[in-house]
Amino acid sequence: MKKYIRPNILNLEPYSTARDEFQGAGIDIDVWLDANESPYPSTVNRYPDPHQKELKKRISSLFNIPEDMIFVGGAGSDEAIDVTFRVFCRPGVDNVVAITPSYGVYKVSAAINDVELREVLLNEDFSLPVERILAATDSNTKLIWICSPNNPTGNALPKEEIKHIAGNFDGIVIVDEAYADFSDKGSMIDDIRELPNVIVLRTFSKAWGMAGMRAGMAFADPVIIEYFDRVKYPYNMSSIIQRELLRRIDEGTGNHIPQLISERDKLAAALNEISTVRKVYPSDANFLLIKVEDANNMYDYLMKNGVIVRNRSKMPLCAGTLRITVGTPEENKRIIELISKYPK
Ligand SMILES: *Cc1c(COP(=O)(O)O)cnc(C)c1O
To answer: Could you give the 3-state DSSP secondary structure of residue 3?
Structure first.
């Protein structure tokens, strides 16, 4: 894996925190005067664990993956996206390939890091253009970005095709699984031991109901994780969030996956009955992409009635589409009623 890492990152002398240098061979320390913290106790007077050990232990059992294959981002999986660019891509030299339409952050993060992003249009039916993706790469292509289930199209992409890409590409394949909890098509997590050039991204923001916490993960080969940890800000997740995440994972709160899946399917069926809705695309996520006669007007109409959806009409292959997040049964009823009455 080391051959894919930027030379300056390979040679990086990482920042060593106060607690990293202390190797307390079994000695009980009760006076901590090493980190210029305030000595006066509160819930937050000490620096957080930069290695998030407790949290990684919990995530390890939750996702059935060894602790040394886990990176935790305190700015969500968006942080993992940015760190991926910084670890692998030489600004102004390397390039990456990404499917389109897909999640917007890959492109923004590429631009921030001065890395060329080559977009490969999905097939008309939103399936994966495997050969066109491989053909878009050259000797300076470091990354291929795939999102499955894909945002905004909603469909999961076949694991076999993703594996084929990973097996035939001399670089890193990132599979963003932000919505995998809503899909019955499986995850690539169990495949990364055999495919060390694959990174899987997951998040607590969607299915776990914790978008406000900003907690996301990258799962990858231990060598990749080692360099991610060197490049991240040392204290990239606050102690409050680490504690709160552990508490909520244990409580299992915020997990409404079965309800959301059943609501998604009901919402899709109801929207399919409405004449102004031309198409409801199949979804493996917690949102639906629909094609309507005049997306811009319907967007304004919904907004004027207090409901905001995402207008995806300007995205490639998505002319005339709106993306609707699955809400509570009451919220879904409201949008169904509004769309049935449209254009009144
Ligand atoms: C929402 C979303 C994310 C963002 O996750 P955070 O952990 O909240 O940063 C990542 N990827 C995709 C495809 C998303 O839709």
So the answer is: helix
